[in-house]
């Protein structure tokens, strides 16, 4: 799901994605419970 990195980058403004696997898994788990706007599709 390519929208995951864009969610992290644009919503949280973390800059370039340099995420560890545990953080990625936690973020994807969070996003799975969070409605994603249709413009990410």
Characteristic key phrases:
single chain, 41 residues, mainly alpha
How much helix is in the residues?
A: 40-55%
Tell me, rounded to a whole number, the average pLDDT: 65
Q: Order of SSEs, N→C?
A: HH
Low-confidence stretches: none
Radius of gyration: 10 Å
Number of strands: 0
Per DSSP, the total helix count is 2
Distance between termini?
10 Å
Question: What is the structural class?
Answer: mainly alpha
Number of domains: 1
Biggest sheet, open or closed, and with what strands and sense? none
List the helices and strands and how they pair.
Layout: H1 3-12, H2 21-32
Short description:
The chain is mostly helical. It has helices spanning 3-12, 21-32.
Descriptive account of the structure:
By secondary structure, the chain is mostly helical. The protein has one domain (3-35). Helix content is 54%, strand content 0%. The protein has two helices and no strands. The termini are close together.
């Amino acid at each position: 799901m390519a929208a995951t990195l864009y969610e992290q980058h644009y919503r949280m403004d973390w800059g370039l994605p340099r995420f560890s696997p545990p953080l990625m898994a936690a973020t994807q788990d969070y996003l799975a419970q969070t409605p994603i706007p249709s413009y990410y599709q």
